[in-house]
Amino acid sequence: MVVHVVTGIVDDGHGLVASRVQRHLTPLTRYSGLIMPYLPLYVAFFALLGLSYGFPYSNCTGKEGSPPPSTLGKTVAVTSVPPCAAAPCEVHPSEVLNLTITFVPNEVISNFTAVVHAALGTTKIPFPIPNPDGCDTSVTGVTCPLKANTPVEWKHSLTLPKLIPAGVTVVIIWELQVSAGNDVSCVEFVAKVAP
Q1: Of 1, 8, 38, 172, which one is least surrounded by beta carbons within 10 A?
Q2: Which domain holds residue 62?
Q3: Are 95 and 26 within one domain?
Q4: pTM of the entire structure?
């Protein structure tokens, strides 16, 4: 038996094996003309996807000035653009940080508000958000009421205020708040203000 790897032809002298191999190779070779020209794009896309999903966050703990843990939901994932793979995330003043928080509410949520602070030691500096309404579909992509036990992908943008000096490291606390002390999601991440 001779196998020709380049052509995918197998010759056992009777032609029986060749037809079996051809049948198994056809599905693979049929799509190679569609995949190969775009292979660099696929590689770049999945590389960027991998970077964005490596966002270093933690859930709020209620310790050392952190808000209490979320009581009305569970955070599943956080992604950002520009991507950040390791803490501290470097952010530039007046740069837009696009954040996506994926969470699962424990109960039906009629409305909620985004509340953002930067913790610098024991001092909390509020970050103004242009539209804190968590249910504004045009801004966040979310329509309320939220269903219980159904994943929600909430999006928002934040521009870092210039009042934090360059080189300073802060903890950014991002709450999706139903009422004071009752969050459907609460995450923290460390950010360093770039010069």
Answers
A1: 1
A2: 58-193
A3: no
A4: 0.68
